[in-house]
TrEMBL record:
Pfam families: Cupin_7. The lineage of its organism: Bacteria, Pseudomonadati, Pseudomonadota, Alphaproteobacteria, Hyphomicrobiales. It comes from Chelatococcus sambhunathii. Residues 11-26 have a biased composition (Basic and acidic residues). InterPro entries: ChrR-like_cupin_dom, RmlC-like_jellyroll, RmlC_Cupin_sf. Residues 1-26 are annotated as: Disordered. Residues 39-136 form the ChrR-like cupin domain. This is ChrR Cupin-like domain.
Amino acid sequence: MNGQDPAASGIDEKWLPYRHPQPRESPPELVIPNAIPNDERIWVPVEENVWFRPLLMAASRGYWMNLLKVRKSGVLSRHRHPQPVHAFVLKGEWRYLEHDWVAREGSYAYEAPGETHTLVVDPHVEEMITLFQVNGAMIYVDPDGRTVGYDDVFTRIDKCRAHYSKNGLGADYIDQFIR
């Protein structure tokens, strides 16, 4: 504006963009226009009729965001979280055997660190899609709490690389989601 006062020129300053450079160390933004993709190859299989779709793999912070899609009923996993988890149900519903609430379409759920629960999708649900932010790890356990496996951002990235290398998207397809 060549040193002009925006108010004097009739321009509302709140509509002016930030004038300075962003921090050099800040990673690039990530915008995914089709978070629920049309290309089924983007969904990474977990088991039969269960997939996840990576949105953000925050390797530098130890968390990941993904969509979980389920097209079957039954128990998906029993797991513990050492860090909080956030969930927002986009379609369908699910619940935990250890609680009396049901996370239905439009529901938000906060899962406290240290909790162990068993995720279930009931038979009347044709498809469930939920946005999850998982901080730290998912530690899979038996009914007595003994560890039987785990997932963290790094195992999830590895699963994506393996899946995308097999289906034609290429192992580096996951790189766009890593920050």
